[in-house]
Amino acid sequence: MSALNLYDTATRExxxxxxxxxxxxxxxxxxxxxxxxxxIGHVRSAVNFDILxxxxxxxxYDVTFIRNVTDIDDKILHKAxxxxxxxxxxxxxxxxxxxQAFASLNVLPPTYEPRATGHITQMVxxxxxxxxxxxxxxxxxxxxxxxVRKLKRYLTLSGQKLDDLQPAADxxxxxxxxxxxxxxxxxxxxxxxxxxxxxxxGAGRPGWxxxxxxxxxxxxxxxFDIHGGGLDLVFPHHENExxxxxxxxxxxxxxWLHNAWVTQAGExxxxxxxxxxxxxxxxxxxxxxxxxxxxxxxxxxxxxEYSEAALDxxxxxxxxxxxxxxxxVELLGIQPEPTITDAFCxxxxxxxxxxxxxxxxxxxxxxxxQAITDGDKKAIAKNANEIRGALQxxxxxxxxxNYPQSASGNVSAALDGVIQLxxxxxxxxxxxxxxxxxxxIRDGLLALGITIEDTAQGPRWxxxxxx
RNA sequence: GGUCGGAUGGCCGAGAGGCGAGGCAAGGGACUGCAAAUCCCUCUACACGGGUUCAAAUCCCGUUCCGACCUCCA
Length: 467
Description:
- By secondary structure, the chain is α/β, with parallel strands linked by helices.
- It has helices at residues 40-58, 74-83, 87-104, 120-132, 210-220, 234-247, 279-282, 288-297, 308-332, 342-349, 354-374, 377-394, 409-431, 435-447; strands at 5-8, 13-16, 24-29, 62-67, 136-137, 144-146, 184-189, 204-206, 223-230, 252-259, 262-264, 267-268, 304-305, 450-455, 458-463.
- It is elongated and about 95 Å long.
């Protein structure tokens, strides 16, 4: 088996992945700031990292996967005013919606999912360490800032130079206590009415995603293998996490992975552009497993240009695969045993080249369908096993009970009985060449969403499933 | 202004010096009472201009266009 190669944003190169502790992989992924409904860009990120996680697990690693929830920030407070609801109620409401969205796409729950507000103690400890080290300062107004000029390695992830940055909007030095306009707030002094927690420097709340540094350290220690997130987090979010963590003496992340966006008309999906597509909306069009197949099918570092046509096409393609697996179960009487082919393995090991893996699934599908025609049970099983193995890594295994399964036993048995009666009538009509009658039965069933296909093994029926 | 990505056939989408990934659509064929499903065959390509090389979609230089980030976006 080839070794896993992964891209690293810090070096901009694909290289062999070597975990810090053999056999174990620690991952921290920046999760949601729970201030609104998830759009499909959010869940793409989750799907991409879920595929990474499943692949690592399949490869034999023991994976610790931390994905945080940021449940306190300016936007949440803003939303709380807007929704006339306490900030914590807003955060919890959207957290639940995110969790629901992840679950409907079969994104595995993280090993642990820490919330920012549960880690104020760790943040205060981290700030104390930074102040003791001379990297941060508290000017006395309740804020705590990181002094970026003191950091030699600042901005190495994004490859920028401090002096080239456009000055921040709040850079009017007169009103600021900052020593440099580019210094960023680790902690923000409480404004009247805002939630706050006590610290040695005054009551306030977390500033610039201090929580990610604090929580990554709390659960993964001084150093960990992979830090992930969306491409737009590279700067400033991840730069600042690095700055905070390294200035505190931590080694922090060994490797950085960033997923690209879902775009529309070439533009990133974002609230400010008003072009977001909510997960709940898309799930009225396709099932969760189909949305996941669509989002996972592009390479994680490529932009995914959304269109309804592409989504529909992708869903149809998935149903073809699913249909083959269903037929293989009908013909063999057992569910496929997941197997990973060399081709799929090589693709995944090449920086998670899912599109190349999809080509190998296509090959399996072609051979599998051929095998059904030939009645070659051994070949049917082989290809079904290999397809199911690949689908399992992609989180799109139709037999996975995390996805809604078809109707309950006795209802579907009754339905099957009713349809078999109709099919018997149709067979009799065909026998006496009364095709008008036989087609009427088929059309009638089709109108109910039930498709009849005549196969070498006799007629089979299927019903379109809703998510 | 700085940093970083991208442009591939009708469409989607890989590849990163030689052998035209794959899918969808289209056309033809097989099968079928007809459908559906399935299989087989065929077709179309690397934004532009130079250069390096025996060989460039791939490397180099330049150009055009598109996008992202530059202090609370996945």
